[in-house]
Structures are given as structure tokens and as C-alpha cells.
Amino acid sequence: MNLRIGLTGGIGSGKSTVAAMLVELGAHLVDTDAIARELTLPGGAAMPAIVAAFGPEVQTPDGALDRPRMRDIVFHDPAAKQRLEAILHPMIREQTEARAALARHGQVVVFDVPLLAESKGWRERVDRILVVDCSEERQIERVQSRSGWPADAVQRVMAQQATRAQRLAIADDVIRNEELSLPDLKLAVAEVWANWPPFD
User: Fold this and answer.
1) C-alpha span between 148 and 128 (Å, rounded)
2) Could you say which of 83, 105, 127 is where a domain stops?
3) With the C-alpha atoms ordered 29, 32, 33, 36, is the resulting torsion angle positive or negative?
């Protein structure tokens, strides 16, 4: 048996840093965002269906998904977003479970799922949900510092995600990553890790 943890947090929350710290503690990480990117690279398994659904204009010259163009399409058209998800989500789920199956017996499996709160079915697929939380102001500040995005671009992404309250409502464990230094964040992660029940 393996303890299955759903890890989520809004953009700029520090979720990816927490994921890396959990790996250092011995977790087996399954990154659903990385899987989605692999499926939409040149030759990716999802590309034929995406091009058939949306046309060749969503494909870059080398055959990858034109992510900015696709993002713009789904931002303005909820039906297009549903069509894209209908293509990607079953493939992501299949790959997610295949990679989870590679974990050692008894190893904690962490599913890094940016849109866990927005996606159906994750509550039933994991034993616990860990939310990395911070204020919206801190999210904007971090993304601007990291990526150089203007504040309104960050806010548009945040508007597509679950609210802070919605994420906290589904959490079994919460790491408050507002003002934590990296050493303090590592301590907070270790404390959560130590409180998870052992699975044999």
C-alpha cells in the first residue's frame, strides 16, 4: 500500500518548492502539469486530437501545442476549454496512474495537481490533500518577481483557478507559505510529513 497525497496551491504559492522538499524526504512525485506538457510536445499523444478539434493554428511549426494561443482560446470560450479538457484529462489520468504504480511499496506518492480543487474525482483518488497557501498579494508578487508578468496577467490566471477559500475547504493539511524562509518552509514540510500515517 502507498499513502496517496494530492498536493495543490495557487500560482505563486510555492507548491513546486514544497513538492521538491517532499521528494527529498522520500516521496515519489507524479507531476500532472509535466505530463500535460509531454502530451502536447511535438509528437505528443494528445496533439492529433487537439489539432482535429481546434485546427492547425493551435500547433507550432515543430508540431507542439501553441500554449499561448490555446490559453487565449479557452480563456474566451468555456466550451473550448471543456473540449480541450475532454481530450487531455483521460490521457493525463492514465499516465498519472501509470507513474504512481512505479512507486516502491510503502512509499508516499505525491500527486502535484495545480488545478486539483477545480478537477473532478481527485478527492476519491487520494488519501489526503495538502494545500500550500498564501495571500493573493503574495502570489502576485512572487509571479511578477519570478516571471516578470504584469500584475493583470497574474490576476487573469488566478481568476481561472479556484479561490483561496475553495482550496482551503478541501484541505486535510495546510502549509501557510506567506513569509516563510526556505529553511522554515522545509521545517513546515517536515512537520506535515511526520504527521502523515504510515502505510505498509
Assistant:
1) 34
2) 105
3) positive
Q: Is residue 88 domain-shared with residue 53, that is, in the same domain?
A: yes
Per-residue pLDDT of the chain (200 residues; tens, 9 = 90+): 899 999 999 888 999 999 999 999 999 999 999 999 999 999 999 999 999 999 999 999 999 999 989 988 988 888 998 999 999 999 999 999 999 999 999 999 999 998 899 888 899 999 999 999 999 889 888 888 888 888 888 888 888 788 899 999 999 999 999 989 999 999 999 999 999 987 65
Collect all residues with Cβ–Cβ distance below 8 Å to 184 and sequence separation of at least 6.
none
Measured CA angle at 13 (ends 11, 16), to 5 deg = 85
Only one residue has cell 495538502, namely 130
Contacts of 56 (CB under 8 A, 6+ apart): none
Burial of 32 (0-12, 13-18, 19+ CB in 10 A): buried
Distance CA 170, CA 165 (A): 9
- The answer on 111 and 101 residing in a single domain is no
Q: How would you label 54-92 residue by residue, b for 16+ Cβ within 10 Å and e otherwise?
A: beeebbeeeebbbeeebeebbeeeeebbebbeebbeebb
| 112 & 23 share domain | yes
